[in-house]
Amino acid sequence: xxxxxxxxxHLDAAEFDADRPAVLARARQAGxxxxxxxxxxxxxxxxxxxxxxxxxxxxxxxxxxxxxxxRHQPGHLDELRDWLEHERPAAVGECGLDFFVDEPDPESxxxxxxxxxxxxxxxxxxxxxxxxxxxxxxxxxxxxxGGLRGVVHSWSGSEEQARQLFDLGFCLGIGGPVTYExxxxxRRTVASMPLDCLLLETDAPDxxxxxxxxxRNEPARLCQVLDVVAQLRGQAAASIAEATSxxxxxxxx
Length: 253
Fold this sequence. Notes:
Blueprint: E1 4-6, H1 20-29, E2 32-38, H2 45-54, E3 58-62, H3 74-87, E4 91-98, H4 106-122, E5 127-132, H5 135-145, E6 150-152, H6 159-167, E7 170-174, H7 184-192, E8 198-200, H8 222-233, H9 237-252
Parallel strand pairs: 1-2, 2-3, 3-4, 4-5, 5-6, 6-7, 7-8
């Protein structure tokens, strides 16, 4: 089977500090050869750069996550531009909008989000998007800025919203939530969506699969996501592995 690509894994998170080498070893043993490691704030960029430089198969993305507004400063956007110019990462992100959080401060979220989209367009980089209770506005902003490509990770929107994103050239990141039987709408989308728009992810250490609920997630668990996606689509797991890895390589390089 083709090596798997975990298109969204926060391997730099403190939850992995005690056993990160073992986590990486388990991932490789499970066939997860590549991982995209997105940042959430300015403080994480240096650690992600060092981690990805030290470990083969890891690619960095730099951005400012909407859930951590209290950690962001306007000057970080200027720093981000410098990092994109000199580091040439795989993507910009994780960025987006989140109107589920307490006191979401939507105007500040919109400022950081739009500027990061503009930087992605300027440097011709894909974007890794977070969209929670904000999918319609995210789609509208993508249209306004234009000239973008990327992935909406941890997809939870409607089938119609998914179609709009496909038309814009975006992929959907599918992870642990699809393994839960109650996720009927998500499962319908995954069963019928274009294969060339599908990416697999873990979002580790968060969003474990149904067999791993309540535990720390890790990239080796991507195999469980793969199996469920293959079952939902009525295709061989090897075919899904080959296609989704090719999609990630095409998007992230």
